[in-house]
Design brief:
- With about 1050 residues, the chain is α+β, with helices and mostly antiparallel strands.
- The chain is about 50% helix and about 15% strand.
- The strands form 5 sheets. Strands 10, 11, 14, 15, 16, 17, 18, 19 and 22 form a 9-stranded mixed sheet that branches. The chain has an 8-stranded mixed sheet with strand order 8-28-27-26-9-23-25-24, with helices on both faces. Strands 1, 2, 3, 4, 5, 6 and 7 form a 7-stranded antiparallel sheet that branches.
- β15 and β16 form a beta hairpin.
- It is elongated.
- One of its GO terms (cellular component) is plasma membrane.
- It is an enzyme of class 7 (translocase).
- Its EC number is 7.2.2.10.
- This is Calcium-transporting ATPase.
């Protein structure tokens, strides 16, 4: 260390370091003091270095009130042996607190945003910035909660200010914008005004006020449902945004939430990761990022320490691996500022919703036509003097009739016509879709599936092919090395000490190189000698590191001290191998190591190594024996990975055009080190899930990068393939074979393929395209960055939540949180359930629409009056739209759904079965209510008011009983599993209670009168007849041709 006299620019004065005659303890004390003093000086430098002036006057770097002390300690033999220095966590936190307050953070923020190399040079590089932030580039920040909390308080949290979610009031206002609601409000206001003028304030408000209250209830019911949906989407959005990131804290690799990252963190980046914050490149290999989300540029950007060390939040890693230093988080990043201004669109229209919008529009037009006819007929009847008031007097008497009475009567007629439109327009259909999608999304989340795109919920119900990965989806992804071949020699793994003696030290050293450096994993050894090492990384990497450390005795820390990594070629799904270039520090010898798919690595080798260290030629006979070894391990469901190396000279290094970085590693003439077999057992229950999918008419195709023998073994174990004797020719192919087919051959053979081995992401994409061209609805699972095109191309993309990269997740429609194929089968069940629930509600609502329209039209044309008043029809609309949707849209999936074939792309939304059911129920309701309308008074000897109440009460109770029929469109037993649907039972009970209140207690509001017990009994019995009718009707077979097509064809044959 240079003396203080040589550093006048620091202004530290004269500091005497007289260690002569000091004991060891006093020397440690003196060194500790100097270390603290020096760190304070160095860590305060960036305050001035990154100041807006950006000058290099280091005299101004130190804090203006920094105190300096000359320390001289005299020897004290009586106490020196007991002097210790203990820097506690509190001391560290306090010191770093001081450092962080001295950092001009805004300059760092702007430097990274602007990619300003000049400023970075003034700061003396990335290492100096790391020091200023109190970060050790290798070990990260201290793994201490208090320390992290302090950083978050001083430098900000990695969150951004999201626009507040839409409140209930917003949806109430949106509901009031509906044209029919506005017309009804105008009618209500006019009726209120005329009523008060005619009957006074005490009684005159009833009619207009009733309409106001009824409209308000409908609006609030709709608004509450939409608000609930918005809240649900907001919760799912937060879960979706909570990405897990690997960081190094206190020298230990750990996984944390993206929201927990703080300035100064060291983040580990691999292919497919999203960069969680703005930062600087510390070190890594072949790092390329996609900044299109930030800059709009599609070209990938190379990242290095010299020309471009800047990493922007929101970008994606497309190649390589790296460590980055976080310099700014949250709102101080460009990504955070951009995201805070974006409102998540929860009004996404799914294909089914688009179809329902057309259906709603068509039914609305019919309702508008009927309402217009009713309006015209009732106006004609009124102005021709064919209507009477409550006292039996003629309402219209020409010029003698008061203008206010005429206007009041016209308002009533218009209100009745508008109400018919309100009831006719099935506003509940979009609501039902929204409710069932929101409900299913919530339940699917509990079943380990997170929906990113609403359309996937319904599309999954139509899927008839699922293309699935093997590793982690069909298997547990819990790897363990169970077989080890060194050359042609099988090494037993049970006896570790025997292995150490059997394999010579130089061969073990080569394995250490190949495993320890050619990896994206890491080993953390706790301070306690009794603690087991902790392994991080992918399951494959953890298994290999565990084997090398525990079985071969690899010491990772010692290994890092002896070698320098010169270049890394990261694992690629197409190459199926990864490589590393090393230089040994002692003698500068250079090694190339490759690791990957066994048969591919063996093909690159010209020799092999024995346990004694002797290298022998890899002739055809040895290759054939090795192939049999690989096939034998693969047939036992083992993943086979081989290790190979070659020692090269400086002259053999291959450079790229700029002459700076090593672009290609030697790929031929390698020496085979050994082959390991990793066991990855099948997931429990996966065979049952595969069988359930097959039973449901959904074909499972397994696409894997493993070799053909491993693929066949796993596929057989999972039930995708039969036994060897049952495997048909063409059911198992390799990716290279599939891609080399002509287009015609692929289209001919694709339906027969069950397993594709050694496939690349391009092969998966090609298969999806071919299947879609043949008319299949395809779901695809994927986890890698290169799977993104196939996930986007598929009808339903299913990304893996644990092993999946952020690129894969963003390309997918649904994220399978536990990477389990059983969860994929559950998503299939929910997809069918969504579609089925919506069809149930369509059947239920159209029954009400048809019955209400025909009853009101016939009554208006024949009698000049509608049996159901405006308030009554609005009440029916409320229970039909909101409560009915809640009751039927929240049915959970049943096993029966998985016994049906998939719903085709072109299958009509309203099936013949639905037409059969709704027409039967509508005809029954129409016949009963019209009988009551024209003959009810004479049959029962009751007044008109009681008869009108009977009609209203019977009509509502018919809908209640028909809700039970709608629970199952085909099965006669509509009560099966009803005890499990508490919401359905609760809504039915609420509807009945409210109906009793409407009839018995809100007589003036609902324009009803009291009913006695036998009249109630009549209403209940009449409505309950819909159950036996439904039971009988479901016995009637239906034709296969869609009803509308059949009707059009029949009409053409009659008139042409």
């Amino acid at each position: 260390m240079a003396s203080c006299s040589e550093q006048p620019r620091y202004g530290c004065g004269i500091f005497l370091l007289d260690i002569a005659g000091l004991t060891k303890a006093q020397k440690r004390w003196r060194i500790a003091y100097l270390a603290i003093y020096a760190s304070r000086v160095m860590l305060s430098l960036p305050k001035e270095i990154v100041s807006p002036k950006r000058n290099n006057n280091y005299n101004k770097v130190l804090h203006s009130q920094q105190a300096y002390t000359a320390l001289h300690v005299k020897p004290d033999t009586s106490t020196t042996s007991h002097i210790h220095v203990n820097l506690t966590n509190e001391a560290v936190v306090g010191r770093d607190d001081h450092v962080l307050h001295n950092v001009d953070h805004e300059v760092l923020v702007e430097m990274v945003k602007d990619k300003n190399l000049e400023t970075l040079r003034e700061l003396e590089g990335v290492g100096s910035v790391a020091t200023s932030l109190g970060t050790d580039p290798e070990n990260g920040i201290p793994d201490d909660d208090q320390h992290v909390k302090k950083r978050r308080e001083i430098l900000g949290s990695n969150t951004y200010h999201k626009p507040p979610p839409k409140g209930l009031f917003y949806f109430v206002l949106e509901a009031f914008k509906d044209t029919t609601i506005i017309i009804l409000l105008i009618c209500a206001a006019l009726a209120l005004g005329f009523g008060i003028k005619e009957h006074g304030g005490e009684e005159g408000w009833y009619e207009g006020g009733s309409i106001f209250i009824a409209v308000f209830l409908v609006v609030v019911g709709s608004a509450l449902s939409n608000f609930r949906q918005e809240t649900q989407f907001d919760k799912l959005s937060k879960i979706s945004d909570n990405i897990k990131i690997d960081v190094v804290r206190g020298g230990r690799r750990q996984e944390i939430s993206i929201f927990d990252i703080v300035v100064g963190d060291v983040v580990l980046l691999n292919i497919g990761d999203q960069i969680p914050a703005d930062g600087l490149f510390l070190h890594g290999h072949s790092l390329m990022v996609d900044e299109s989300s930030m800059t709009g540029e599609s070209d990938h950007v190379d990242i290095d320490t010299i020309d471009n060390p800047f990493l922007l939040s929101g970008s994606k890693v497309v190649d390589g691996c790296a460590k980055m230093l976080v310099t700014s988080v949250g709102m101080k990043t460009a990504w955070g500022a951009m995201m805070s201004s974006i409102t998540r669109d929860s009004n996404e229209r799914t294909p089914l919703q688009a179809r329902l919008d057309k259906l709603t529009s068509s039914i609305g037009k019919v309702g508008l036509t009927v309402a217009s006819l009713v309006l015209v007929v009732m106006l004609i009847r009124y102005f021709t003097g064919n209507t009477e008031d409550d006292n039996g007097n003629r309402e219209y008497n020409g010029s003698r009739t008061d203008v206010d009475d005429i206007l009041n009567a016209v308002v009533k007629i218009v209100a009745a016509a508008v109400t018919i439109v309100v009831v006719a327009i099935p506003e509940g259909l979009p609501l039902a879709v929204t409710l069932t999608l929101a409900y299913s999304m919530k339940r699917m989340m509990a079943d380990q599936a997170m929906v990113r795109k609403l359309s996937a919920c319904e599309t999954m119900g139509s899927a008839n092919i699922i293309c699935t990965d093997k590793t982690g989806t069909l298997t547990l992804n819990q790897m363990k090395v169970t077989k080890f071949w060194l050359g042609q020699e099988h090494i037993e793994l049970e006896d570790t000490s025997a292995n150490s003696n059997l394999i010579t030290s130089n061969v073990r050293e080569l394995f250490y190189q190949g495993v320890g450096f050619n990896t994206t994993g890491s080993v953390y050894k706790p301070a306690s000698s009794d603690s087991e090492p902790e392994f991080s990384g992918s399951p494959t990497e953890k298994a290999l590191l565990s084997w090398a450390v525990l079985d071969l005795g690899m010491d990772m820390e010692k290994l890092k001290q002896n070698y320098v990594v010169m270049h890394v070629e990261t694992f690629n799904s197409e190459k199926k191998r990864s490589g590393v270039l090393l230089r040994k520090k002692v003698d500068n010898t250079i090694y190339v190591h490759w690791k990957g798919a066994a048969e591919m690595i063996v093909a690159m080798c010209s020799s092999f190594c024995e346990s004694s260290g002797i290298v022998k030629s890899l002739n055809d006979d040895v290759k054939e024996k090795l192939e049999k070894i690989i096939q034998g391990m693969a047939a036992s469901s083992l993943r086979c990975i081989a290790f190979a190396y070659v020692q090269i000279s400086e002259e053999e290094l291959e450079y790229n055009d700029d002459g700076k970085s090593h672009k290609r590693l030697k790929e031929e003439g390698l020496t085979l080190l050994g082959i390991v077999g990793l066991k990855d057992p099948c997931r429990p229950g996966v065979k049952k899930a595969v069988e359930a999918c097959k039973y449901a008419g959904v074909e499972i195709k397994m696409i894997t990068g493993d070799n053909i023998f491993t693929a066949k073994a796993i596929a057989t174990e999972c039930g995708i393939l039969g036994t060897d004797s049952q495997v048909i020719d063409g059911e198992v192919v390799e990716g290279v074979e599939f891609r080399n087919y002509t287009h015609e051959e692929r289209m001919e053979k694709i339906d027969n393929i069950r397993v594709m081995a050694r496939s690349s992401p391009f092969d998966k994409l090609l298969m999806v395209q071919c299947l879609k061209q043949k008319g299949h609805v395809v779901a695809v699972t994927g986890d890698g960055t290169n799977d993104a095109p196939a996930l986007k191309e598929a009808d339903i993309g299913l990304a893996m939540g644990i092993q999946g990269t952020e690129v894969a997740k963003e390309s997918a429609d649904i994220v399978i949180l536990d990477d389990n194929f059983s969860s994929v089968a559950t998503v299939l069940r929910w997809g069918r359930c969504v579609y089925n629930n919506i069809q149930k509600f369509i059947q239920f609502q159209l029954t009400v629409n048809v019955a209400a329209l025909i009853i009101n039209f016939i009554a208006a044309v024949s009698a000049g009056d509608v049996p159901l008043t405006t308030v009554q029809l609005l009440w029916v609309n409320l229970i039909m739209d909101t409560l009915g949707a809640l009751a039927l849209a929240t049915e959970r999936p049943s096993d029966e759904l998985m016994k049906r074939p998939p719903v085709g792309r072109t299958e009509p939304l309203i099936t013949n079965i639905m037409w059969r059911n709704l027409l039967a129920q509508s005809l029954y309701q129409i016949s009963i209510l019209l009988t009551l309308q024209f003959r009810g008074q004479s049959i029962f000897g009751i007044s008109e008011a009681v008869n009108d109440t009977l009609i209203f009460n019977t009509f509502v109770l018919c809908q209640v009983f028909n809700e039970f029929n709608a629970r199952n469109m085909e099965k006669r037993n509509v009560f099966k599993g009803i005890h499990r649907n508490h919401l359905f039972m609760g809504i039915v009970a609420i509807t009945i209670v409210l109906q009793v209140v409407m009839v018995e207690f809100l007589k003036k509001f609902a324009d009803t009168t009291n009913l006695n017990w036998w009249q109630w009994l009549f209403c209940i019995v009449t409505a309950s007849v819909s159950w036996p009718i439904g039971w009988v009707v479901k016995s009637i077979p239906v034709i296969n041709e869609p009803f509308i097509s059949f009707l059009k064809r029949s009409l053409r044959s009659v008139f042409i």
